[in-house]
Amino acid sequence: MSLTKFLQDPDFGPKLDCLLRFPKVPPFGEHPVVPSSSPNTSLIGTAFDYLLRFALQRRFPLAVAREWVAETGLRTFSARIQRKPTQLLAARKTIDTATRAIHQAKLAHADYLKHGELSNDLLQAVLRLAQVDLLSRSGILPKWFGVVNLHDMKELRRLMDVVPWNNITPQHRCILNPTFGHASALVGGADADILIDDSLIEIKTTKNGAFSREHVRQLAGYYVLHLVGGIDGAPAVEAIEYLGVYSARYGRIIRVPVLEVVPSSSTHEIANLFQDFSMRSKLRN
Is 201 exposed, middle or buried (0-12, 13-18, 19+ CB in 10 A)? Predict the structure, then answer.
């Protein structure tokens, strides 16, 4: 069970809501500066996640990076298929295509870190990585797997054009896809988007301009998991002071002080809620 499923569970979500605060936060804007005009919005969102993290790595070479989700997921998908001989032959071409996509992405990523050019090769690479992500997370083969839409590449470029680098470039710490030690296992594996300095930030590419209750719940969940298990690759002494969302279509980041969302008087009870619900979920399964 993922963090999202935890938060949506009727036995968990309402109890968590009672322990959190939901501050009134102004919207990111009235209208998106980069409207969505592609049917592949989910794919573009995942591709942009990769692209923004690559850009942060270039701007802050000390950024801590994990293995890409596409790599881990493809390995898991391949192992699962190996146990199903009747499906192996049909899946072989897909696995080979995904393996090539990851290899090409490695080359494009290395070239970008060296030269900083937002090339068409890089845009194609992150869109193919997003396809592999979808395959590995859901087991569903995206339509036209391995094929990249030129319009999607242009939309990614526009999203990168509006990134407010003055507000999002790390100064002393950057962890990409941070995980939370043993606490990630409480929710079946959990990784946030970015930890920049003292701010835990999620990347959103939806057209909705609200800093929603769902955003608050998700960020609060990650924050409490970090209290339970720490953050892999980060010293325990460096605190998280802010929870934030970067809205890519509005080109704006909003940060909220942690204590306006997770009162210090509630952290112990929320941590126990996660641990107890995780235990019950495992017993049910």
Answer: buried
Whole-number Å distance between alpha carbons of 249 and 28: 9
- Identify the DSSP state of 215: H
Helix (H) or strand (E) holding 246: strand 242-247
Q: What does DSSP assign to residue 229?
A: H
Task: Tell me the C-alpha distance between 55 and 113, whole Å.
Answer: 8
Asked whether 94 and 131 are in contact (CB, 8 A), the reply is no
Q: What is the dihedral of CA 172, 200, 193, 106, to 10 degrees?
A: 0
Residue 17 buriedness (CB in 10 A; 0-12 / 13-18 / 19+): middle
Residue ranges of domains in the chain: 3-32+165-284, 41-161
Q: What pTM did the predictor assign?
A: 0.92
Task: Write the pLDDT tens digit of every residue in 111-143.
Answer: 999 999 999 999 999 999 999 988 877 766 666
| Partners of residue 250 on adjacent β-strands | none
b/e sequence 162-179, b meaning 16+ C-beta within 10 Å:
ebeeeebebeebbbbbbb
